Amino acid sequence: MMLRNWLDSILNLFYPRVCAACGESLLKDEETVCLKCRYTLPRTGYERYPDNPLAQTFYGRANIHAVTACYFFAKSGKVQHLIHQLKYKGNKDAGAFLGKQLGESLKDAPLFQGIDVIIPVPLHPRRERQRGYNQSLIIAQGISGVTGIPVGNQYLFRTKYNETQTRKTAEERYNNVQGIFEVRRQEELKGKHVLLVDDVLTTGATLESCAHQLESVPGITISIAAAACAGN
């Protein structure tokens, strides 16, 4: 045990353990996100309200059963730092944390009961090779670990390599994701309640495009959950 503690001290000297949200040093028993941030990150509580602002963004656009996000996202804020760590710094632990927190918010929420499978928004294979992983899949796996709902990343595929949605207007985002997704193994999804998962929900254009493809499956029910959304 003493040797392990000594080795940990040496590792921390060269690779300090810091909070993925605030960047401060983690205490010995803290993992990924410090205790202070865990209690102060801005939660939406939207999982309890069927007509929340996120759900309203899809009205008239797609047939969605329920929509939520775990945290509010603000420029230069702690949640943005968490998402940045996940997407651009290779910090999968940040994604696992976000997924687990989202899963905790969903597991007892009446609107999100009866879900059969979690479907992460896919990356194009080229972008996934560049990043090394799909951040939405990491979040989905975190949700699954809390809820026990299986992840199905074999159903939805991105067939076209398109530009990033960052810095695009709402109209540009909508046009950028039209016709880029494809549903496979539809027979397995008939009559199922699926949970579409993404990292950040802004205009909803990407998730809408995914939903439109999934709507072709007979009897399907679609719900949406994201780790974060635009601040209130």
Topology:
Blueprint: H1 2-14, H2 35-40, H3 53-57, E1 66-73, H4 78-88, H5 92-106, E2 117-120, H6 125-131, H7 135-147, E3 156-158, H8 170-176, E4 181-183, E5 193-201, H9 205-214, E6 221-230
Parallel strand pairs: 1-6, 2-5, 5-6
Antiparallel strand pairs: 3-4
Helix pairs in contact: 4-5, 5-7
Short description:
This protein has 232 residues and is α/β, with parallel strands linked by helices.
Question: Mind explaining what this structure looks like?
Answer:
The chain is α/β, with parallel strands linked by helices and 232 residues long. It folds into two domains: 1-40, no CATH class; 42-230, Rossmann fold, CATH 3.40.50. It is 38% helix and 16% strand. The protein has nine helices and six strands. The protein has helices at 2-14, 35-40, 53-57, 78-88, 92-106, 125-131, 135-147, 170-176, 205-214, and strands at residues 66-73, 117-120, 156-158, 181-183, 193-201, 221-230. The strands form two sheets. It has a four-stranded parallel sheet, with helices on both faces. A two-stranded antiparallel ribbon has the order 3-4. Helix 4 crosses helix 5 (92-106) and helix 5 crosses helix 7. The longest helix has 15 residues, at 92-106. It is globular and about 50 Å long. The mean pLDDT is 89.
